[in-house]
Amino acid sequence: GRRDGNIGSDGLQRRRNPDRRLAMPRAGTIDRRIGFLFLGFIVLLGIALTRAAYLGTARAGSLQHDAASQQITQEIVPAPRGTITDRNGVELAISESADDVDADPFLIKNPLAVAQQLSPLLGKPVLTLASELSKPHTGFVYLAHLIAADTAAKITKLHIDGISMIPRVKRVYPRSWAASQVLGSVHLNGQGSAGIEWKYNSVLQGTNGVRRIVNDAMRQPISIDDVHPTKPGKTIRLTIDAALQDEVEQVLVGVGAQYSPKGATAIVMNPNTGAILALANWPRVNANDPSAAPNYAGDDRAVTYNYEPGSTFKAITVAGALQDGVVTPDTELNVPSVLQVADRQIHDAENHGDETLSVAQVLKISSNIGADEIGMKLLPQRFDYWVHRFGFGARTGVDLPFEEQGIVLHSWQYSGSSMGNLPMGQGESVTPIQMATAYSAIANGGILRPPHVVASIGGKTTPLPAGNRIISQFTAGELRDMLRGVLADGGTASGAAIPGYDLAGKTGTANVVVHGSYSSSAYIASFIGMVPARAPQLVVEVMVDEPQGAIYGGSVAAPAFQKIVGWAVPYLGISPN
User: Fold this and answer.
1) Would the pTM count as exceeding 0.90?
2) Closest by alpha carbon to 182, among 254, 84, 114?
3) How many other CB atoms are there within 10 angstroms of residue 461's CB atom?
4) Which runs of E-coded beta strand occur in 65-160?
5) For residue 20, what are the contacts with CB-CB under 8 A and spacing of at least 6?
6) Which of 550, 361, 496, 526 lies closest to 430, judged by CA?
7) pLDDT by residue (tens digit) across 367-388?
8) What single string gives the DSSP state of each residue in 50-76?
9) Residue 266 and residue 278: Cα distance in Å, rounded?
10) Most confident of 36-50, 104-118, 154-168, 415-429
11) What pLDDT digit, counting tens, does each position of 123-150 carry?
């Protein structure tokens, strides 16, 4: 049979190839494949163009924002808080650059290793930091607040991914303890929380700035511009004298050590202007570490503490009686050993028989019975008038926050025994600043002037508060002459006299009300005095709350007054007699 195949031109028989058509595609097939491929490219190009158009129109704004946010950032630049100084420019409160340290746990690869690096810089245990850096489901954790700028710089140099700094301003009190209750404090958010810091927060805080930072691909800044510059807070200059303040605080430290009271307050004022030159409270508070002191120690007791003034109030009773003309300094009073007033018996501190005392002697030896007899000559309505005329029962208007107004009854609220209590300083509540202000009116010739502690704001002197005449110069002079006797031989504060200086003042010892009745063991000891008596330039008050071991104003508070005045007169250039 014949082999399947073809005979070639060369005469040789060739085998037929049945797959020849597959190996040699026709031209039409190639064209179709090219067409499909081209069509595929067209479709993909169309999709790309559609996507580009969508991104360039519908999402252009958000993408532009995302791109900018990766390269351009804006950060708040905290404004430096205004400085607080004493009257001579000594800095009492300043601002320093500081940083908060935060972490993004999602970016922390090895929490324990990072914690070991940060622990000595932040002063926190390694395990505590490691726990914070390992918190799940969070992208932000505060590690530290208000760390010093040099520490922040050291952390930044570590270049730890996930650790960043937030610029802040830290409040620092260079003198730590000085006038801390007056100055107050600042919250972590930079807002004032007490004292001058709170009262004048709006002028101290300034205005934060905004900074625009352009970063390169490695997130390194290549351009920094201040969009809105910071506006620092204004400087506040106080009437406080830092050196005198330190001395007054040291005196109260001594009172605290000797008598272990619940608290003590001292105020030094210029009676002619109402300027407070020193205001101290004990226990002391370190303004840079307020949490170390008892909670109540942070209160400025000079303006927030209500107490019964005791015999220091007798000067107010006598002032009203002198001004109304019902007594003179030489008016004689029959003073029995016991005075019956309604259902109460009034005694003096020292037992005595029936005796005759002048008004001046009543103040000198602090006779309770004599003060009540003078009050009764005034009658309740006029006594009530003079109590309120001297500012009791109302705030003084001092430029310190949270001032209390005391508790003072009106005459229509009196009981039958009220005139046995009130004229000698029991049954009404006052604040230390009210007492110092009232005595300043006696010292300056009869003008009741609101006290103040701010001398200037932003270099602009604050207006002097207007005063109001409440008694005549003559009455004020008579009263000062009588108050000299308290520090003379036989007076209740004779031991507080300072040789060469003419002093006037009044002691006070008042029972403290405990559970609705007067305690027989808890007392307020106080003394308020002025120097020089003829034309006073200083009024000094010392109030000691529940001293232990001694109770009388003459033995507890008057020696503290003596120490303060003895230091202040040469320092302030007040000449001896």
Assistant:
1) no
2) 84
3) 10
4) 72-77, 84-85, 91-103, 141-148
5) none
6) 526
7) 999 999 999 999 999 999 999 9
8) HHHHHHHHTTHHHHHHHHHHHHEEEEE
9) 8
10) 415-429
11) 889 888 988 888 766 778 888 888 888 8
